[in-house]
Amino acid sequence: MAPTTYFLLVSFLALVTSQAIASDPSPLQDFCVADIHSSVKVNGFVCKDPMAVNADDFFKAANLDKPRDTMKSKVGSNVTLINVMQLPGLNTLGISLARIDYAPLGQNPPHTHPRATEILTVVEGTLYVGFVTSNTDNGNKLFTKVLNKGDVFVFPQGLIHFQFNPVYDKPTVAIAALSSQNPGAITIANAVFGSKPPISDDVWPRLSRCKRE
């Protein structure tokens, strides 16, 4: 094989491999219901014995049609996540779901999902939504949109995004689907200012200088 052809083949395989591991792995059987009580630790969950699986492993009475309490939240929102921890049948299927309730002027503050792209649709009310791009040459660009009932918006995997109900007298409800059985969530303010132990004060002047530059 010519050196050039070999190099192109290796480069192509590297690209395919990097894309293949960018999200939850594809399942190798019909299902792998999570055995959440197993002491074995893997990247995901051990499969329950297929002979012990029943329909309840794929079902959860989540009552997602019922409004959630947003009064106890400091930011005026309540996220009801249905991931593999609540629904073991999701294990290896690469998907999860969330209902998000927003009080009037409530928000889901800037956060990321390190393992999932999110697609959100407004079921009732209005949302101001957006995400920020990464640090490329023209990076940190903000994309925003006002969504009304029935509208859909996508937040790319890993990017900082937010939702805000701009209406002062009506709540909003949205349903989000995420491309991971366990997407994770990093709230930016909590991570930066609420870490344990806290980030050293010596870091902040350097961050300010980088921002100016």
UniProtKB/TrEMBL annotation:
GO terms for cellular component: apoplast. Mn(2+) binds at residues 111, 113, 118, 161. Residues 62-205 form the Cupin type-1 domain. The lineage of its organism: Eukaryota, Viridiplantae, Streptophyta, Embryophyta, Tracheophyta. Transmembrane segments: none annotated. This is Germin-like protein. The keyword Transmembrane helix does not apply. Belongs to the germin family. GO terms for molecular function: manganese ion binding. InterPro entries: Cupin_1 (IPR006045), Germin (IPR001929), Germin_Mn-BS (IPR019780), RmlC-like_jellyroll (IPR014710), RmlC_Cupin_sf (IPR011051). Disulfide bonds join 32-47. Pfam families: Cupin_1. Keywords: Apoplast, Disulfide bond, Manganese, Metal-binding, Secreted, Signal. Gene3D superfamilies: Jelly Rolls (2.60.120.10). It is found in: Secreted, Extracellular space, Apoplast. Residues 1-22 form the signal peptide. It comes from the Eukaryota. Oxalate binds at residues 108, 113, 118.
